[in-house]
Every structure is written in structure tokens, then in C-alpha cells.
Amino acid sequence: MKHWVQLARDQLGVGRGAPQAINAHLEAAAQWICRAQAATPDDGVAHSYDIRANKWLASYPETTGYIIPTLYDYAQHFNKPQYREAARRMAQWEVDVQLPEGGVRAGTMDAHVITPTIFNTGQVLFGLARAAKETNDDRFLKALKRAADWLVKVQDEDGCWRQFQSPFTTTSVAAYNTRTAFGLSRAFEVIPDERYLLAADRNIAWALSTAGENDWFPGNCLTRNSDDSALTHTIAYSIRGLLEVGVVLEKSQYLEHALRMAKAVALAQREDGSLPGYLTPDWQGKTSWTCVTGNSQMAINWFRLARETGESLLVQHAIAANRHNMGLQDLSTDNVNIYGAIKGSHPINGGYMTWRFPNWAAKFFMDALMLEALGESVENIG
């Protein structure tokens, strides 16, 4: 019944509230992430809360990995030291569940298929690298090296990762693995092994070699779509990888491509600050619903590109996306399972994480708000 009430609220427009102070939204999201961690029998973070089934899903290694730096950033920049311990426990859990070859498993901890996966491993690099820097604990350093070494080992010569794609996606190669390249650049900050940067560079170069004349990456989605449309979620992943590896390697062509893509996405932004959940290869919106995670991810990209390229008009798009998502975060409900959470789609029955509040939606929401609140004073946000 609760899911039908949520849907009715969304469709009638009463599911959106007036944005409050950024600090209030950040604290509510951070508290929800910790409730998602407490909802599991381990120290990982629950994949999501399913409002239709009224249950928390099992821990998800991939996204727990990149939640870790978000909590460290929040603890550091907003004087919230209690979140450091939650982040450390997540990182220790990642070490405990790392597969023998160094990779990170696909899916949640209750998935029947246990196999190392490229993208998931790339995302856990963020957490292991940050935990190693924050704690000087050799366990995190060793796990980071094992994961990064495995990614280098299984990369194809042309820079693409074709082996070990997730069994829970239907694409054979993924341009959004540029975010895995980004993870390797973070690993390099802690372990200065040039192989990590070389592998990151090769992957970005491969991705760019596949791009169309209008900068679109083919097959850049979690599923194969007949019209080659892609989620704003995965489009934003690919842009972030180009951007951040370009900054590290000082390669202007990577930044310029990321900037063109980000501007193309900005043209699809609606008056209320949201983006269509899917874009077609001519950068046109395909859906009426919005992927809330994608909105936050693009806000991050727009903030970062404005800083790195001087394209200050992108900040307006980022703030508009933040305001839209702030209005969707429920800060009045007495349901602790969704208080402070961020839904996958709006309306909640949309085509991405339908009926669910995924943990990574809260993570990217926090990152985008911290970039807005802190501006130039924040470095290396997740």
C-alpha cells in the first residue's frame, strides 16, 4: 500500500517539497546511508530499500565502495566525525569480501552468481584508496593494490575491458568503464604505479575511438537498446571518467570531449531542473520520468567542468538539478526507511530502480550538494 501512496504523491506533484538548507539535506542523506548499513547483517550498505516489497536488499560491494569517500568528505568538511567510523567499517568489509584474484563480485551479497566484475572493482578502488589515506592501515593498501593490479592484468591491449562484464547487464563492452579508469587514477594517488595511469589512459583513448561525430558513445548503457539510447546515469559515469582522467593526465582533448557531452546533456534539461531518464544518440530526451541519480551525477559533472574549464554557465544547470532533487528528498515522513533517501526514478514507478531508493542515489546527491556548498575549497570529491 505504501508504494501506491508514494506513486500517487509523485503523480499529483505533492511528492515534492520546498528545498531546505543544504546542510539539512546532507545530514538526512548521511543518516539514511548509515541506516542502510545497519539494515544488513554485515558492514556493507544495503543495495536499496524497496518500498513495494517493504524490505532492504542485501549489501552491495560496488556502491559501498564509492560511498566510503563520500562519508569521509562529509565528516571532514562538515565537522561530522561520527561518519568516519562508518566509512572505515565499510572499507574493512570490502577487504573481507574481496575475491581471491583481487576483483570485486558482481551484484549483491545474496546473488547466486559469484564472479569478479570490472566496473564493480573499479568503484571499490575509490573506497580502498581513501581509507588507506585516512587510516594508514596496510590492509587497505594491500587490497587496493590487488584490485588495481587485477584490473591492469585483465585489460585488453586496446584499452577496453571486454572480459568480466557484469552478468547482470546485457552490454558486451561499456564506455561507462571510463569511471573505472578514473578509479585507477585514484589508486595511483596512493600507490604511484605508472601502470595504473597507463591503463586509465588506454581506456579513455579506446572509448574516444568509439565515439560518433556528435560525441555519443555507442552501447553506453546497462542494457542493449534497439535505438542505442542510454541512461543519464551511465552517460554521466562516462563523462566523469573522461573529465577526471583528463585532469590527472593533463590531456585537454579528454576534457574537451567531456565538456561537449556535458553541454549536450544540458540542452535536454527541463525547466524544473530534471533530465529525461534516457537520452537518444542525438542527445534528445526519450522518457517523461527522470533518473534521479543521473540528475545528481550530472550536477557533479557540471560543477567540476565549470571549475576545470571556466565554463561558468554550467553551474546554473548543476544548481537547478540539485534543487530538483532536494525537492524529492522526503524530510517530513515518519517512515525511517525512506526519510532522507533518494529514489531511483521520479515518479517512483519510472524505468530506473523502480520502487526503490538505491544507496548510490544518496551518495551522488551528497557529492553534488557538497560541491555546491563548498565550491573551490573541496578537492577530489567522490
Automatic annotation (TrEMBL):
Biological processes annotated in GO: carbohydrate metabolic process
Domain Broad-specificity ulvan lyase N-terminal, first and last residues per copy: 124-282
InterPro entries: 6-hairpin_glycosidase_sf, P29_N
The name this protein goes by in its record: Broad-specificity ulvan lyase N-terminal domain-containing protein
Organism name: Nitrosospira lacus
